[in-house]
Amino acid sequence: MIRHIVMFSSPNEADREAIYRGLSVLTQIEHAALLEVSYNEKIDQIANDIDIIVYGEFATIEDFRAYKAHPLYAESIRQVRHLRDVRVAADYTVSNATRQLIKA
Fold it and tell me: 37 falls in which pLDDT band (50, 70, 90)?
């Protein structure tokens, strides 16, 4: 399984709803096992620069590639790119992630 996490910020607070709506288009792409779009609740006391998060899970790398190649993905980019300031993405394979303490 591939986990895909993307974080966005916008310098203009008035654009955040349009970014959220534009990213919600991604939820209609059938290749994701799970796809969520959420506002950052900004609970962290140190850093709250991110406004909106996209979280996706994909059964295979092929599903992830099909998601990125989907026309609705391009549509979401068209709606959002000009409104956002920062986009940070991270992808990882779940089976490669540790769930335990790694001792020195």
Answer: very high
